[in-house]
Amino acid sequence: MPCFGRSWTPPSAPPSGGNRQGWSFLIIRDGAKRARLGELYREAWGELMKVPYYAGAAKEPPDSPAGRMLASARHLSEHLGEAPVLVLACVALDPGVTPSLTTGASIYPAVQNLMLAARAHGVGKLHHDHSPVPRRAGEELLGIPAGVETAALIPLGYPRGMVSGDPPRRPLREVAFADRWGDAF
Q1: Domains assigned to the chain
Q2: Which of 29, 61, 66, 103 could in theory staple to 57 by disulfide, Cβ–Cβ 3.0 to 4.6 A?
């Protein structure tokens, strides 16, 4: 494909700010490790349900957006270890740098690419910005070294039921503004 008069080939690796390539992916297929992660996740889910946001969502009607989100998250907490593959997206931290909002931001385009590719092949996926699996237990189980942060957990598998369409999204006027914050695009 021509690009400014040159031949262009898409990169074989995900984008990376400054070409630092500080991301890595841990693909977990071992059944015992997936089962143990599922147990850790389930235990952590119980603790997470004590957080006011989730405790409040538990009081919402089951057919409300918060009720559906909670039911989906609860289902995941009960079945995470059954997913045939878990992908843990990781980011290496620079020594002496305090993590911030943009630390490892290059991992998220890679996660999105993985999820789009999975969907194109009929593979179900679910993205978690972070996992409620206790960090130390997960590090020990998976051998994650110091200086590496987990950024996303993506369970992959073939859906049992028909999954179609996209989840509901907020209207464009609520998320894109023209020239001034609050002026609908």
Answers
A1: 19-161 (3.40.109.10)
A2: 66
E strands along the chain, which residues?
2-3, 6-7, 23-28, 85-92, 124-125, 148-157
Q: Which residue has the tokens 């993985």?
A: 114
CA-to-CA distance for 114 and 25, rounded, in angstroms? Answer: 11
Tokens of 76: 């995941």
Residues 89-103 have a mean pLDDT of 78
Q: How confident is the model at residue 147 (pLDDT cuts 50, 70, 90)?
A: confident
8 Å CB contact between 67 and 7: no
The sign one gets for the Cα dihedral 174, 53, 82, 154 is: positive
| Contact criterion met (CB below 8 Å) for 61 and 71 | no
Cα–Cα distance list, 25 to 19, 92, 142 (Å): 17, 11, 12
Asked if residue 149 lies in contact with residue 88, where contact means CB atoms within 8 angstroms, the answer is no
What is the chain's length? 185
Query: pLDDT tens, 108-127?
Result: 888 888 888 888 888 877 66
DSSP state of 84: S
- Rounding to the nearest 10 degrees, give the CA dihedral for residues 163, 126, 140, 15: 130
The pLDDT confidence band at residue 2, using thresholds 50, 70 and 90, is very low
